[in-house]
Amino acid sequence: MSNLLNGITLGAVILGSISYISKQLISYKFTREMEKHKSNLVVLNEQYKQDISKEVSKEIEKLKYLQQKTYKEFELHLFKKHEVYPELFKLTSVAYSRISKLSLPVLPEIFPFADDSELDIYLTDFGCTNNEKKDIINKWIENKNEAYEVIKIRMKYHNYKEAAGSLESVVDFYLYNKLFLSENINKMYPDIYTNLYRLLDYSNPFGRENSKENDTQRDIYDSDVVNDLEKLEECLKSELSFSM
Predict the structure, then answer these.
(1) Which of 126, 163, 175, 207 is the most buried (most CB within 10 A)?
(2) Is 210 left (phi over 0), alpha (psi -120 to 50) or beta?
(3) Within a domain: residue 61?
(4) pLDDT of 90-146, one tens digit each?
(5) Which of 110, 135, 99, 108 minimizes the C-alpha distance to 120?
(6) How far is 24 from 7, CA to CA, in rounded Å?
(7) In a domain, 151, yes or no
C-alpha cells in the first residue's frame, strides 16, 4: 500500500513538473513571439515614419516651389500693371486730343500772308515730301489764296490720318495687354474706344458734310469721351494705389 501511495505521489509530482515546464515553455515562446512582433512593429513604424517624412518633405518642397512661382508671377504681373496702366491712359488721351483737334482750323487766318520760309516749315512739319513742297510753294507764288486752300486740305488729311493712327495704336495696345487689366477696366474700355471711333467718324473732314446736326452729334460724342476718360483715370489711379 505504501508503495502504491509513493508511486501515485511520484506520478503526480512528475505530471506537475511536466505541466509547469509546459506552461513555462509556452509562456517563454509567447513572450519571444511578442518581443519579435514588437520589434517588427518598431521597425515598421520607423519605416513608416521615414516614408511619411519623405512624402511630407516632397509636398513641402512642391508647395514652396508653387508659392515662389505664384509670388514671382504676381510680382511680374504687378510690375507689368504699373507699366500698362499709365501707357494705356496716355495713348487714349493722345488719341482723343488728336481727334478733337480735327474740328479746329488747321492754319491761322493770317497764314496766306506768311513768307515762303514759314510755309516750308509748315509743310515739313506735316510730312510733305520735297516734291509736294515744291508744287505747293510754286502754287503759293502764283496764287496764295488758291495755294492756301490746297494746304488746308493737305493739313486736314494729315491730321485725320494721324488721329486715326493714334486710335488704332491705342486699340492695339489695349488688345495686346488685356490680360494685365482688371475686370472692371476690361468692361469699361470697349465703350471708350467705341465712342472714340464715333467721334473720329463725325470729325472726319472728308467723310461728312458740315451741318448743325452733325456738329451737335459730334459734341455729344465728344462729351461722352471726356466722361469716359475721367472715369478711366479715376479707376486706374484707384487700382494702382491699391496695388502699391
Answers:
(1) 163
(2) beta
(3) no
(4) 999 999 999 999 888 776 655 655 666 777 887 787 777 888 888 888 888 888 788
(5) 135
(6) 25
(7) yes
Q: Is residue 155 part of a domain?
A: yes
Cα angle 125, 127, 131 (rounded to 5 degrees) comes to 115
The grid coordinates of residue 62 equal 512642391
86's enclosing H/E stretch is: helix 2-100
Q: Is 213 exposed, middle or buried (0-12, 13-18, 19+ CB in 10 A)?
A: exposed
Rounded Cα distance, 227 and 24, in Å:
100
CB–CB of 180/206 below 8 Å?
A: no
The model's pLDDT over 99-114, given as tens digits with 9 standing for 90+, comes to: 999 888 776 655 655 6
